[in-house]
Design a protein that fits this description.
Layout: H1 3-11, H2 17-42, H3 49-71, H4 85-93, H5 102-107, H6 111-123, H7 130-148, H8 162-174
Helix pairs in contact: 1-2, 2-3, 3-4, 6-7
Length: about 180
């Protein structure tokens, strides 16, 4: 599961990228809360029903999610709705249907394959689509900038004012 937000950030169109990552975390949080409430509601049931009911609910929802992912397309168009539930379902569950990230392909010098993958996801394979060409250029510019700024080391995390930020991040993760 932890790779899904990273995958969403590489595949989703820029205009909805943040919302998809937030939606992913919200879905996890709501699922945990729902699980707690189901357990709370079934804790006083007699016999094995107290654990069988929550287990059955998990199975039903998992099967429904997997079945939906089998029939939903993963292509993203510029007219997709802001929440893109079909995309989240498809890409969060069925790893076998994941296309390779265009950004990853471009990063490793496979530009033509990256452009083809991007066009396939955004415009049905049309490499000359305005949005595809624009996003392809943005990805290349981001990668170029990353490579120019890659001249840092791990020591940078403990120098000057960055040390304070690093420690805050470590403590937040530790005590979460």
């Amino acid at each position: 599961m932890p790779f899904c937000p990273t995958d969403h950030s590489e595949i989703a169109p820029p205009r909805i990228r943040g919302r998809l990552i937030t939606l992913f975390q919200l879905a996890i949080t709501l699922g945990i809360a729902l699980g707690y409430f189901v357990d709370l509601g079934t804790q006083n049931l007699e016999g094995s029903a107290s654990w069988r009911v929550p287990f059955a609910i998990q199975i039903v929802t998992s099967v429904a999610l997997a079945a939906g992912c089998l029939v939903l397309p993963y292509r993203f168009s510029s007219t997709s709705t802001w929440f893109c539930s079909d995309y989240v379902l498809r890409r969060s569950v069925l790893i076998t249907h994941f296309p390779i990230s265009p950004r990853w392909l471009i990063y490793y010098g496979r530009d033509e394959e990256g452009l083809a993958a991007l066009a396939s996801m955004r415009a049905g394979g049309d490499r000359t689509d305005v949005d595809v060409v624009r996003e392809y250029g943005e990805i290349r510019a981001e990668i170029k900038l990353e490579r120019e700024m890659a001249e840092t080391s791990w020591i940078e995390l403990v120098k000057g004012t960055v040390l304070k930020r690093t420690l805050i991040g470590v403590f937040i993760q530790t005590f979460q």
